[in-house]
Amino acid sequence: MNILDKIISVKQKEISNKKIFYPIKKLENSLFFNRKTFSLVENIKKSDIGIIAEFKSKSPSKGIINNSVSVEKVVKDYQQAGVSGISILTDKNFFSGKNENLKKSRSIVSLPILRKDFIINEYQIIESKSIGADVILLIAAILSKNQIKNFSKIAKNLNLEVILEIHNEFEIDKITENLDIIGINNRNLRTFIVNHNNCLKLFSKIPDNYIKIAESGISNVNHIFKLKKWGFRGFLIGEYFMKNKNPGKICKNFIESLLKLINSSK
Fold this sequence. Notes:
This protein is of the alpha/beta class and 266 residues long. Helix content is 43%, strand content 16%. The chain contains 12 helices and 10 strands. An 8-stranded parallel barrel has the order 1-4-5-6-7-8-9-10, surrounded by 4 helices. Strands 2-3 form a two-stranded antiparallel ribbon. It is globular.
């Protein structure tokens, strides 16, 4: 059983338990459920950098990345650094994430927040709205085209934006309506190995009516500059920021360097 299969197996049990303790009616009564959502699409469109900065304290491949910083400080610093959006890992068993981190962030920042998790059930979409998310991630590797179609429709009805994450050519066929952003992940989710050329290989095969973002293994401004020239509008960066004692400061320096590079090339 590979890492992804293990994650899905644990996730199924986790959802069954949550449905008992936090039924949908309870989720719909949450403080955040009826709030007006922020648009990641709009933020990326009006930005020169399009960085989505992630709060991630652990991963199956790297183990503990950073367990000494508070989510409150990091997201506040990310916002001040000028990111387009913030991604919060909520998977508990493999990434040490929690819904509470997203709720806390929602109360602090006025930026779109992506709930990063392994969504395999419509319950999780309603849950995402109830904890303050603006955007959800659907992973093509773990969903059928029909599931993607149904889940994205449910998300739209809740005013949530949808990122479909793809990893290879076969998953391009799963692109359907009601999607806002296509994320190309350089990381193979079954082995967790990163191939930096993956997003370049798949870019031209994705319809141009979607905003395209690059994910995983991004750690220098020259790489982003190259990806921007190809036409990528957004960049999801987590580990590079989070492995430092002060992720927000590293993020700020990174954005300043990127802007200098962009401006000097105009």
